Amino acid sequence: MILLAVTLAQWAAGWLVLGRLGRCDLGVVYASSSQSEVGAEKDRPHPSPLPRGERETVSASWPNHGSDLALVQGVHARRPLGNLAPVPTEQLSIIIPARNEEENLPRLLGSLLAQPIRPAEIIVVDDGSTDRTAEVARQQGARLLVSQALPAGWRGKTWACHQGAQVAVGQWFLFLDADTRFEPDGLARALAEFPAAGGGALAVVPYHAVRDFHEQFSAFFNLAMLAATGAFTLLGDGYRQRGLPGQFLLMDRATYQQVGGHESVKGRILENFWLSKQLQSLQVPMRCCSGRGIISFSMYPEGWRQLVEGWTKGFASGAGLTPLPLLLLLIAWLGGLAFAPIGVFGCGAPWLWLAVYGLCAVQVGWLLRRAGSFHWSGALVYPALLAFFFAVFARSVWRSGKTVSWKGREIRAD
Question: Closest Cα to residue 290, out of 158, 377, 189?
């Protein structure tokens, strides 16, 4: 019975680490508005997307519309603004580092074209691609920047982001991963959250749009990544906002320059977490939210090899950047999840242990549905997903500091 009580305590640790996951959801915040507000939003005139012919000819910047700022203000009118104004879209530069992203770029750029607001520009930095990335960027009307040769000491993504920021004309920078895409009105809703962040920096964790079977095995990596940010813990504000995911990262130019930009983290794979440490040291406000209903992504869609290599290259390093109390709670929770199925077959009182296993499965299912479109059956057989997580994490620890292959480059894993 002592083991049973300990396992239940470890199960409860999962709620302490991720209990706010559903409450920090931008999609839920905005979906909770009244029907009258929704109707008013629909009735507001929006500029139509660019015709296909114009998309292919625009290369330097996107046209702006006088109603863009009003739209962002209107979306955010449902929440208090304080003394801060929403991000003016005519001063927003979107920067997308891209290496061999011909499959993903059309989805992201297409979703941006479909938004009712327009940024000042969309910059795609082609990081030495060997596919049609550059051609796709041009066809979709983005401003294409061909990356210069990778200098010593830099990572491909940090070098691409740095170059994009150097040529950007806007006063706000939005760094996006190429495998993301926005839901309708998602960009306006995300930008409207910036004042609630207190200025500084805002990160939005994309909802994982799971398409293939192998992506189900990213389940616990997603949850661990969310836990590492500290944004979703029930422990209080002292443990929140310790890390910012990098798939969607928004900050103003002055803040970016204050922390030294991507040059200050040029050699890091998990550059976003190291940037957040810089921001924290300068006491810059930070906020991280879940992007369900706002922005989504498909992680490592090319198969098992990409999945394993992708999580191997920096996951152990990310664990080392997690605040110690959160890391200990996360370890305790995962340990409890691992022990529950063992208890069913090897610790007596199998019906009690089966009930504990059921609690674990329900908890895992609840959390996964808020992190992505994971199938419900994954929660029932979560030990298989957890075993995969442990195996790849062990590989990440073993390969730390060694060379791994990623998108045609040999890089040193953090």
Answer: 189
Read off the pLDDT of each residue in 128-150 and give the average, rounded to a whole number.
94
Please list the residues that pair with 98 across neighbouring strands: 126
Tell me the two tokens of residue 274: 């190291």
Closest by CA to 337, choosing from 197, 219, 244, is 219
For residue 78, give Cα distances in angstroms to 220, 325, 379: 34, 35, 35
Q: CA 94 to CA 165: how far, in whole Å?
A: 9
85 pLDDT band, cuts 50/70/90, is low
CA distance 387 to 375: 17
Helix (H) or strand (E) holding 256: helix 253-258
SS3 112: helix
CB 227 within 8 A of CB 322: yes
Give the phi and the psi of residue 213 in degrees, each rounded to 5.
-60, -45
Tell me the domain boundaries of the chain.
Answer: 16-45+54-321
- The helix or strand, by DSSP H or E, that contains position 200, with its residue range, turns out to be none
Q: Which two tokens stand for residue 172?
A: 């706000």
pLDDT over 50 at 233, yes or no: yes
pTM reported for the whole predicted model: 0.81
- What letter does residue 25 receive in the DSSP assignment? B
Please tell me the CATH code under which domain 16-45+54-321 is placed. 3.90.550.10
Angle between helix axes 350-371 and 219-229 (nearest 10 degrees) is: 70
Q: What are phi and psi of 158, to 5 degrees?
A: -65, -40
**pLDDT tops 50 at residue 168:** yes
